[in-house]
Design a protein that fits this description.
Chains A, B: It comes from Danxiaibacter flavus. Chains A, B: InterPro entries: NUDIX_hydrolase-like_dom_sf, NUDIX_hydrolase_dom, WH-like_DNA-bd_sf, WH_DNA-bd_sf, WHD_NrtR. Chains A, B: This is NUDIX domain-containing protein. The structure is a homodimer. Chain A is an alpha+beta fold. The first copy, chain A, has two domains: 147 residues, Nucleoside Triphosphate Pyrophosphohydrolase (Alpha-Beta Complex), CATH 3.90.79; 63 residues, Winged helix-like DNA-binding domain superfamily/Winged helix DNA-binding domain (Arc Repressor Mutant, subunit A), CATH 1.10.10.10. Chain A has seven helices and nine strands. In chain A, the strands form two sheets. In chain A, strands 1, 2, 3, 4, 5, 6 and 7 form a seven-stranded mixed beta sheet that branches. A two-stranded antiparallel sheet of chain A has the order 8-9. The longest helix of chain A is centred in the middle third of the chain and has 18 residues. The two termini of chain A are 37 Å apart. At the A-B interface, helix 1, helix 2, strand 1, strand 5 and helix 4 of A face helix 1, helix 2, strand 1, strand 5 and helix 4 of B. Chain B binds a DNA duplex through helix 6.
DNA sequence: GCAAAAGTGTTATCATTACACCCATGG
DNA sequence: CCATGGGTGTAATGATAACACTTTTGC
């Protein structure tokens, strides 16, 4: 390879056979498309996984629910666009947010070709005041959503599957819970998201053996049974100890 | 929720307060950006993970290597655009291809804002005739690539990490090998991609216990040592038996 | 016959599963 | 005192990791 590099670089310097000088002109010749971001915002409340939706404001989707989205502004990074949408709708910033997938079917939008990038966000419902009650913004149980505007049902399902997988590999769940939570709440969260029943003792053993839960010394309050301890997740310790995994499994 | 739906739908039907009738007009008001696809095409040859690159044809990146990309044509689904790029450059179609991530930093392209969607592709090098030797199209060892045009190094590394993770969870590796392969080749592949040494006996045990390798009855040929058996991967059986995994691990 | 890699089993350790009783609280 | 869920341990099973010698081929 070294040899090829040498030769061709020397040749090119003399003749620059077909090199393009004006990058801007090149880019100007590309077709352009509108691009939006859509946020799938998950929350957890009363043992149900929920998602934040508004009514679509398109006549053609009248009555249908829609993800929170907006087009990307000029020169706006898409991650920032997604953060902006979240901020505008929920007042939250610095929220857990991750890019999931771009959806590009040419006919996915009735107004013409629009690409959209799906972002997944997790937030603790109780911390949020939905001060903007525009378009009936509110939480819906994931399991009860029947149809949505555009291809938003498909986008939501893709993000839901993404969440199911991610939560088993990374400590995302804590973003959905209050800062202090009981082990029962944590288990309910996993059971709701994964749609399985888990053994309570094994679940506790698993989490305690990770040694990433900090006992706050506080207890649950206002529960009609023996109160449980409240824990915090030790994000700092997790960052320092996360391990490299090599195991073939399929 | 049922109640709210009923009320607001009724109201809307009467007044349609702010509903947008002309979706096309709405979309026309969105800003538009050029969008490209870039293919990170992995191959495996002589125990090295390789990637297919060309010379950048931009003056500003003279001498630098570039991923294979092209802008998305009007009304072209991005998955199809990526397939098209692959087809045009390698002559292959129906190749393993998966969307990885969209890159959207406003300054990632010197000619102005261009978004790009990274696609990861895996193919068996020996099956390919690179009939188009334009722009010095050829294979490079992943470990030896120092710098690239645009943000392509970052894109490549993102796809490499993606591959390292995916190959442990899904039988992607077989796309990088010839149809018939020895267990040693398979292990070399895993070792090259994951950058680890694996125990030969445990590796064999693991794969045999999956019971997804078909003994072809054939043997290696032209090797300067005892020849190994050749196997095929049983894709059909895999599709029928892949299992649902529930294990919390982070 | 020598070099090089193929092929092959056992043991120890660790993680996962299944499972049942007493305890603390609110009502 | 009753209902509800909190809190706890053990035994069986299955997966993973470590480790060495014999066999087959080309040269």
């Amino acid at each position: 390879m070294g040899k090829e590099v040498g030769i061709s670089t020397d040749d090119d310097r003399q003749f620059t056979p077909g090199l393009i000088k004006d990058a801007r002109k090149l880019v100007d010749s590309y077709p352009r498309v509108p691009i939006t971001v859509d946020c799938v915002i998950f929350g957890f409340e009363e043992n149900d996984l929920k998602i934040l939706l508004i009514r679509s404001d398109l006549e053609i989707f009248k009555g249908e629910w829609s993800l929170l989205g907006d087009f990307a502004a000029d020169n706006e990074d898409l991650d920032e666009a997604a953060q902006r949408v979240l901020q505008q709708r929920t007042g939250m910033h610095d929220v857990y947010l991750e890019q999931v997938k771009i959806f590009s079917k040419p006919d996915r939008h009735p107004g013409g070709r629009v690409l959209t990038v799906a972002y997944c966000s997790l937030l603790s419902i109780e911390h949020i005041k939905l001060d903007k009650i525009e378009n009936e913004l509110h939480w819906h149980k994931v399991t009860e959503i029947k149809s949505m505007a555009f291809d938003h049902k498909e986008i939501m399902m893709e993000c839901y599957r993404w969440l199911q997988k991610r939560i088993q590999e990374h400590p995302l769940g804590f973003n959905l819970l209050p800062k202090k939570f009981s082990l029962r709440e944590l288990q309910n969260l996993y059971e709701a998201i994964l749609n399985v029943k888990l053994d309570r003792r094994n679940f506790r053993k698993k989490f305690f053996s990770m040694d990433l839960l900090i006992d706050t010394g506080e207890m649950e309050d206002d529960v009609p049974h023996r109160p449980g301890k409240l824990y915090e997740f030790d994000f700092a310790k997790y960052e320092n100890t996360k391990r490299r995994w090599t195991g073939i499994d399929f």
